[in-house]
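go over this record:
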Amino acid sequence: MAEKANKEAATEKAAEKKVETSTAVKDAKKPTRKKKAVKAEDIAEVAEAKVGATTEEAPKKEEAPKEVSLKESNPDKFLADFNWHNYQEGIDPIDDGKLEEFEKLVAENFVDTLDDEVVEGTVINITDRDAIIDINAKSEGVISLNEFRYNPDLKEGDKVEVLIDVREDSTGQLILSHRKARTIMAWDRVNKAHDEGTIVNGFVKCRTKGGMIVDVFGIEAFLPGSQIDVKPIRDYDVYVGKTMEFKVVKINHEFKNVVVSHKALIEADIEEQKKEIIGQLEKGQVLEGIVKNITSYGVFVDLGGVDGLVHITDLSWSRINHPNEIVELDQKLNVVILDFDEDKTRIQLGLKQLSAHPWDALGDELKVGDNVKGKVVVIADYGAFIEVNEGVEGLIHVSEMSWSTHLRSAQDFVKVGDEVEAQVLTLDREERKMSLGIKQLTPDPWTDITKKYPVGSRHTGIVRNFTNFGVFVELEEGIDGLIYISDLSWTKKVKHPSEFTNIGDKLDVVVLELDVEGRKLSLGHKQTEDNPWDKYEAEFKVGSKHTAAIDEMVDKGAIINFNEDISAFVPKRHLEKEDGSDLKKGEEAEFQIIEFNKEFKKVVASHMTIHKEEEAKIVKQAAKKAEQQAEEAKPTLGDANSKLQELKDKMDGKK
């Protein structure tokens, strides 16, 4: 009885849910990606409801003969096969056929609202703040319009991708996110666009260092400045806020970085135009172009897809410091093709060649010897270039700037921008060369040199340069003379002129020799004073003695200074003292001059001869005294006779 009661109760419960289940099945519109687990009692209710509905609709038939159940026929087997778990959970057994039919209906009509799953929905309504999206779930989802700011044309009926963010919030509302779904799908689309090389649309959001930030499928991609256009971009801000076509050129999956290019889309078209233009190039051809870029060495001109270079020297017949003096960016101009390589990838253009050469307009009246005026445009160490007429220049070599034979830099005479007057020295119209001179405008100082600087005359000059053998002294502009190193001092031994004087110093000189044809002047400085060796010849004659201190020790002896002019060399063996030791540096002693040569300014002295001479003198005096003593001790003939007489007397007395 209890079992029968339970079965009747289950049938009544299924009947109550029949209408609700039928409505849910009717509203379900879309299949799901995954299938949810279904409880047995739900299956039973739906199946019995369906069976009941079918039974009600079908005409009543005669009841079939009642079959004997397993419970009645074999109670033991029934108990062994009984599902006690379903019994405790209140789940009634359902026929397998009914269960399969129910699962098929669920798969065809219900969408599985799993979290973090991207599905496609339909916009069914748009309010002031939200968009209502139908995803075929039991309720519609809500998405803020802020997530559709990139698409201001959103309207009802549009298909959008959404992510199921929350299946059911506290109010039972289904929460969706279009932004998250767009981000997830964006990476798939970006990778697909990169792999297939397809073109994508992007919205330029803002400018950044080195390029722009572009929104592509909701991903912030980087657009380098060099990839915006084939031409250099000077104002990036004009692209901000624009929607443009791009090509995905690089993806860094590790750092989620995307690089796009707009330049890549137009390069293909440009290459075709470039081939067409290059195929028609000929030397001497005049084309119209637009100034694309300006550098310090020239101008790049866009000829319509192919670039050519106008070198700075081909911009104007006149000298210019920078190309922007002639052209400006985006300027249209005509240029002539001067040359190109075999592949025609490097094209050399010219602008000045479109006008006549200024030398051709130079008048025939200009000839050698004429004076001209011009402006200094370039200065080099070897000279200065003077622009006589526009595009016509002449060179003033540094040797033609002054009559002086001592060459200096051109900057010592002129500077850029100076207006100068010069004389035409040479003129070659075919080679278009002209040499000028400035010094020719003043008299040559060597014309009356014999009157102004006769031999023996004294003058004051300025030291201009040194050499190892002498000093160059300038007496006046154009008049230089050489003082040999031996003519600098009577007494000092000068190894290099820098030891004696400095550049720029004033120096008194005497003209020693004059060569008018060779334009050479020999000078002397020591000749301005008397030769001190004339008076020292008597004072320091050989044998004279002088007292001095050892000033310097050298390898073979020592140097002593008797005064500022006279120095003497003492050989090493002549440094010996009376006790046998040698004189040391700083010791004062008496020296004897043993050699004096005025011509070679050579003096040799000795200390040893002083005491050796004394010793010899003493020895000589001792020898002389001994000789005298010996002479005094020698007996005479009278003394001998006297002694003989005394001896005779003694002998006689003894007798």
About this structure: The radius of gyration is 62 Å.
